[in-house]
Specification:
By secondary structure, this protein is α/β, with parallel strands linked by helices. It is built from 27 helices and 29 strands. The strands form 6 sheets. Strands 1, 2, 3, 4, 5, 6, 17 and 18 form an 8-stranded mixed beta sheet that branches. Helix 1 runs parallel beside helix 15 (441-461) and helix 20 (646-656) packs across helix 27 (843-856). Bound molecules: NADP nicotinamide-adenine-dinucleotide phosphate. The site of NADP nicotinamide-adenine-dinucleotide phosphate has 26 residues, from helix 5.
Amino acid sequence: MNQPTPVPEQVDAVVVGAGFSGLYMLYRLRELGLSAKVLEAADDVGGTWYWNRYPGARCDIPTTDYTFSFDPELEKEWTWSEKYATQPEILDYLRLVADRHGLRSDIEFSATVTSARWDEQEERWRITTGRGEQIRCRYYIMATGCLSVPKSPDIEGAGRFAGPVYFTSRWPHEGVDFTGQRVAVIGTGSSGIQSIPLIARQASQLTVFQRTANFSVPAHNGPAPADRLKLLDEDRAGYRHAARWSRGGIPVEPTDVLGVAASEEVRRERFEAAWAQGELFSILNIFADQGVNPASNDIVAEMIREKIRSVVTDPATAEALCPKNHYFGTKRPCLDTGYFETYNLPHVRLVDLREQPIVSITEDGIETAEESFGFDAIVYATGFDAMTGALVAADVTGRDGLSLTEKWAAGPSTYLGLMTAGFPNFFMLTGPGSPSVLSNMAVSIEQHVDWVAGCLKDMRDQGLETIEPTELAEAGWNQHVQDCAAITLHPTANSWYMGANVPGKPLVFLPYIGGVDAYRQACDDVVEQDYLGLQLAGPGGDRCRDGVIRRMQPDVAMVLAFMATLDLPAMETLSAADARGLLAATAADRPPGPEVGEVTDGVIPGPAGDLPYRLYRPAGPPMGPRPLVVYFHGGGWVLGDLDSDDPLCRELCERSGALILSVNYRHAPEDRFPAAALDAFAAVQWADANAVGLGGIPGQLAVAGWSAGANVAAVACQLARDAGGPRISGQLLICPVVDSDLTPPSYQENGDGYILTTALMRWFWDYYADPSDRGDPRAAPLRGDLHGLPPAGIVTADFDPLRDEGVAYARALEAAGVPVRLTRARGHTHTSVTMVGVVISGAPVRAEMGQALRTFFPSAEPQELVS
Ligand code: NAP
């Protein structure tokens, strides 16, 4: 007789995992009145704190912060015993949370999910467990943790060892007694660094196999920090609020001290204070620029190396323990208790795998390129398939039979790290593309759970049943995640943040590094903007407001936010003299730009008097003549001078390998149209005539300029063509003013809030040219004849009122047969592309500028690009 097909269980939501995030998710789902089931592979709650029971396992975020905040009564009832709690204590805490809220009744333990399929017709997920159970649910929520799937040992002969093998991430519940044993530990990440000192206490011989030396800071464990406890006692709610809106999920004021600018005394003082504090967020906050500037990072890294050398007595071992292959912070730094001191014990030895790689694990030990080691036990502390491992392992199939594994073959793609297109009603808690592992997980977990719960409530209230990101919104978020990473040193490291620890895993920066605060704001903004970028459907009607939540480069946004705090007067409300003073004042503290070979100042004769110039010569060979670029500064024909654009000129010089001759021109309102244009043309004529004396190559002359400087550069090209010379090889026009029409869409979109405003442009034009002159091609070169002009490199910025006229000039030049290289500065403003040393995301755009200049001089000797 056929068995009747079991009727699948139905719940509103299935949650996978009963760690911090799964427990809180269940609590919130119940609060909403939704039926929910949590599937947990272990036989108890705890998640990462259930599995990682190795000796020394502790959290490395202070317990004042590594704790739930959703239950104020629990906060009163529970007191952590130490600054950094042990694994058993954290597990006890999570058990208490489960029991306090009666969560266990909706958790099925020892239940693994073998597959999850989206049923298009029913609009339900069909979940299958290892026991063959079927569960149907509307919402499928992965609370599987970021570091839950251990990396399988990728070492030759790993299965051959005859003795006991232990994984820090799957430690036996009954513990392990290494007394009298010869033990090998492979791996020196957080798990290795925490367990090695304790294993050394028991083992008769301990050999640590280190592939990459790691930065570690003493935890100084003990009672919870008194200053934090005091703050909590005084205003717990305020403290938690501050944590939620902090950069890392702990209320720490981000420093504005730059490592490269600080005195030796300040550097030392800040470092020692952070070292004494023994907290990750302090050591990562010594200098504002340590995460982005190699020179600043080196200062911190070297001070840590000094500490290691001062502790480890054997100089060769100390040197091997000093991290030198990655920037500090680009691999997860560790907190330790007596880690480096352990290497001073006579029975502990470090084997540097960069000196002698492992050839194979053998039946009785480990063989390296130089030695054979015999062991009684091997401990793998080799890490995890981080952030994506647990998600793709769960065999998730969305719309049209697309599996998550297939979709993410080239790396994860998510919207806000919470959802992914093609997988309706599928949520990931602390998924890739969210701050997660770069933050205090407790705060990030609560934020994600709260967001999901809020979303489900809104859907229910509005009669909506499915939700899914659009491709556009998701691609925009992925871009933003990568943009944030790209301005840091992180992508340079072979870290698990990059997926580099798992052979064959795509190299993509996985978490969101823009900050917990910025991230929370983005999530809130999505909701505020009617669930921007999400398609929602149900009896309440289908709807989708498509769009990208963060289009601006993160450092550009930071500069704008900083400028807003300065509360500067709008330029157009000032006199020309005061506006010039303001520009000079704001430029005073900026980084100087790259070193160049030589800088000389001089004057050239202009049509109405001398024009000051500054000549930049690139560093290094060849010492002979170079192509020459005449550059004109920006400033709306009213402001600016040789100093205002000095850092940009230096960078153009280094990137192009050409001489840059930056020339001042007469300014309005003292000298109105066409004075600036005529001066520019005169400067080009003079430069051509004097090229040899300047160190230039005769006939290799180009022009360049930014903003109004690009205007006069473009005009100079038209005047030179009309005058039959000089011959100009190319024109680099950076965010050029080429027309006097203030109505294109880019003026509507970007006319306010991005420094160059419509009001300011109007002010510039009013000073520069009478309305009757504004159609003259010498004021608005877009209106001139564009045939026979030199090849152009044109840069436009997304958030620039002038964007559309730059594009229009490129199109018009092309139509006139002029070769054009159009570069879109994605996510930039009119000014941000020029902010050398401040706006790091502008570096690739400036590299493009340098490249454009190089193409103008094809016969010039190739130069090494300085990036
Ligand atoms: P991990 O940081 O990835 O460290 C793994 C170590 O194993 C690295 O030293 C790695 O070297 C080495 N390794 C991997 N494969 C190897 C191979 N085939 N041959 C030789 N060496 C190999 O892993 P983890 O220590 O388990 O820590 C992972 C993360 O979990 C931490 O970064 C942290 O976020 C979290 N965690 C936190 C705590 C805490 O809160 N206190 C404790 C433990 C872990 P390479 O560096 O060369 O790849």
